[in-house]
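Hey, weird one. I pasted the 3-oxoacyl-ACP synthase sequence into the form twice and got a warning about non-standard characters only the second time. First submission, copied straight from the form history:
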Amino acid sequence: MSLEAVSSHIPSRRVRVSEYLRRYGFNEKRIDMHIRYFGFGEVPCDPDEGPVEQLVAAAAGLALRGREHRVRYVLHARTMPVTAPYPVNPLQRVCEELGLADSTAFTLTQHACASSLLAVQLAGQLLADDGDPDARALVLAGEKTFTSAAQVIADTGVMGEGAAAILVAPQGGRDRVLGYATHTLGEFHSAPWSDEATSARFNQIYPKALAEVMLAAVETAGLTLDDITLVLPHNVNRMSWLGVLRHLGIQGSGRLFLDNLATLGHCFGADAFINLQSARAQGRLRTGDRSIMTAVGLGATFSAMVLQH
């Protein structure tokens, strides 16, 4: 399968991370740590844009008009199980806005922020089973930061609003998916509500666990790390990435795309795809280059996907 097209939407309104954290009782020392060491500067956040508007805006860049009948599936990859009060159904409204009311639409949440990679993998499997080379699947990722729990994961990520839309094809050469790996460590199911000892244990194993799943995805693709041009990460604590690179044996951070961390924060499951779009625009990926996307979902699911540009 391949990513035939990737588009995104970033709200134009921004909030300084210092203001964001101060609002939730962070002292100045911890605020300074998030900015100076973890790498966060500001995050997009627009209270006037709802989840439907943001997802529709992301999908607008895919130029689906006139091709709606080819989109057989729509998958909304979400971090949080609930994003709107009953009976409001944002995904249904998005499908109506995009002319995709006849598509089979559903939501994935089980992998939290890693659900977007799971959705791409599942979309490819569904299309392969259908056997129609003209069929497509639309994967949507990104959420509103509408509760305090959705705005900050202390010492890990400051959450920003940004949506991504990915058109998946059963074949093609734009960004071919070469490998995928995922692993869930259920002992950390309580995520940010864990006790101090469990949180400390998670922080200790995190770099090694992510490195291992990245290596598994690369091996599944029949490659080695030397074949990977760029790492397209989820935008979390910059310091944690240094530990991951050490476990991978990668010297320096030249192959790690963190350009969006300071200005976007962690945009839930949309991070890696927004980073892919940015890397393309900057000329960081050329024809034939291989990249690896990463995502870690609270709970704790570690995932990675290898692409060939």
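That's the output from the first submission. The warning seems to come from a hidden character in my clipboard, not from the data itself. The chain has two domains: 2-169, 176-308.
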